[in-house]
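Ticket #4471: structure output looks truncated?

Reporter: J.K.
Steps to reproduce: submitted the chain below (208 residues) through the standard prediction queue, then opened the result file.
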Amino acid sequence: MQDEYRTVARAGVHETEINRSRFICALAPAATEQEAQGFVARVRKEHADATHNCWAYVIGADASVQKASDDGEPGGTAGLPMLQMLLRRDMRYVVAVVTRYYGGVKLGAGGLIRAYGGAVGEALDAVGTLTRRRFRLATVTVDHQRAGKVQNDLRSTGRDVRDVRYAEAVTLEIGLPDTDVEAFRAWLADATAGTAVLELGGEAYGDA
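Returned output as attached by the reporter:
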């Protein structure tokens, strides 16, 4: 698993004009391939009168799913440069659709590659991206007497407290970077006089 990746902060649209052709890039986060395909279908419906609706998406933190379509443009001049731009920017869980309204001036293969790749790059800059970092899910079980202080200390040091459950003891779910686990274990033992229990769970990604 890679330690971090980037994705789009939100769905958004950016338009640019090149030699009288309009290039409209729509971007959206997509957790699954189905979500990505659904977004492509919605944009195609919205711009059903466009000359082309080319698309690319990357799903998976390790970019395990990569797909692209030229939608009638010469092979390799639209979908592939869009996909390459997403990968060059380390983008994951993202879908891009570039809608082209032809303006009467042919761009040639090189011009199309630059236009489609550039439309995605400009849209990423305009919409904004965020970094998500891999972390270890961990559970801290502590007595009621010490729970409040532990919680405050966690939050004041910027730790990600994801959930708190109260029963006979208090259970805190937190996210820890792998590199912090041993230092955190030592801090917790010190802060609770060795009474807290730390259990490590699986891995997930969260905002950096």
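Triage note (M.O.): checked the attachment and the full token line is present. The first strand starts at residue 4 and ends at 8.
Status: closed, working as intended.
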